Amino acid sequence: MSVVRLTLGYIPLVDAAPLIVAREIGFAEQEGLSLDLRPSPSWSTLRDLVALGQIEGAHMLAPVPVAMALGLGGMPTRLDALCVLSANGNVVGVSLALAERMRAAGHPFDFADAESAGRALIAAAGERLRIGVPFPFSMHAELLYYWLGALGLEAPQALDVHTVPPPLMAEALAAGDIDAFCVGAPWGAAAVDDGVAELLLPTTSIWRFAPEKVLAVRHDWAEANPDLAARLIRAMWRAGRWLADRDNHVTASELLARPEYLNLNAELLERSLTGVQTISPRGEIRRTDGFLLFHAGAGGFPWRSQASWIAGRLAARTGLDRAAADRAARQVFRTDLYRAALAGTSADLPGASEKLEGALHVPTEVASQTGTLILPPDGFFDGRVFDPSAD
């Protein structure tokens, strides 16, 4: 097998780990790939680099390929999601002043109950809540709109959502530019360590199993290079499986901490991998099962129903035709390429390419190639179930 050099972009976040592990542990090399990993300063820059063909692919926010398929964001190029790189991993944080008001009103900061946390946040925020997210088309934004909208706080009437780069979230909070944020690991924990924030909620409490990042490539590149796409998928699958082993978390955090990658303290990064979070400057600790997932329960599978959920949310908010948005979104989550790439491996793939989202409240065995696949709970905080065939 000839060695092929591919350039992949990423944002310095913990959930870029599959790319870094694939390169450093040798999973890419096993597939005859040499990965040139390039950090990017923003999601818009990263999106444009892929779309313009300056790099082959990228660690990308799951809603970005869907948004582009819907004509949102100003870039007409179609991007495909070859696989899901991670699920969950985000936190909602609030300013110290807002946290003090919430605590005074009796909120316990249990870091678990999305409904009580949301109602306490709305009550303490007053007339308007200003909240930072890393990018307009992101699960950060979609989960916030879903969560707060279900509790009666609608944008733009009473909710201002601002785009803030993840490393600057603590600074924006300290300067009073925002009251709260939703951001990926490790930047919520970093804001607590800086003494400017308290963590209110992991987004897994809003949706137990939300796709967070995908491996995105141009559609024309995937069609022209099916063998390379398959090699990339297999390398990411093996990296995700390695990351799912708790015995590897210390090594993973040390790899991520290197100056050429995240350039942050390894202990800070390990908290995200273990799900043990320090939620306040006073040192309060909370543990969250499934805080950040890379592999469990067919974690890399690009479910078309998840693309459909994202498309429905985007279409409703932007006034697009829901049926047309759904059709476009399903095409960019490439279950076909994922199945083909992992055929012949030990991966146990689900028999279906879509499912009811939010229907599982306990680990559940589902039909699969070997009959041993167990999907984790994926419920929404308000008990709703999304049926992709009904929209």
UniProtKB/TrEMBL annotation:
For this protein, the record's CDD domains field holds:
PBP2_NrtA_CpmA_like
The residues that cross the membrane are none
Q: What keywords were assigned to this record?
A: Cell inner membrane, Cell membrane, Membrane, Transport
Instruction: Please tell me whether the keyword Cell membrane is annotated for this protein.
Output: yes
SUPFAM superfamilies in the record, alphabetically? Periplasmic binding protein-like II
User: Does the record bear Plastid in its keywords?
Assistant: no
What Pfam families is this protein classified in?
Answer: NMT1_2
Q: What does the UniProt entry say about where the protein is found? A: Endomembrane system
Q: What is this protein called?
A: CmpA/NrtA family ABC transporter substrate-binding protein
Q: Which organism is it from?
A: Tropicimonas aquimaris
